[in-house]
Amino acid sequence: MQVGTYPTRRGEPARFRPHADEPWQPVAAWAGPWPVEELWWEGTPRRVARFQVVGVDGRAWLMTYDQAAAESVWWTEAGYD
Residue 81 pLDDT more than 70? Predict the structure, then answer.
């Protein structure tokens, strides 16, 4: 994943885990990426990309990817039943 003016991805997401202490689960469906520029009003903007991911258990998740961190980071912003 690269987040620039337009984020690019390599391949399709195959698995994810909403939290580090949970097991990986297969992706049933997904949408995105949607690039967002955050914190522009503070003078240090950062670009992230958001994805919606649906697991095989039927729950949907809003996931965010940030490549500007010291290491590229994924985190979960929200879960939907």
Answer: yes
- Rounded distance, CA 37 to CA 70, Å? 18
Using one digit for the tens of pLDDT, what is the confidence trace for 43-70? 888 888 899 999 999 999 999 988 776 6
Continuous segment of H or E residues that includes residue 41? none
Residue 5 DSSP code: S
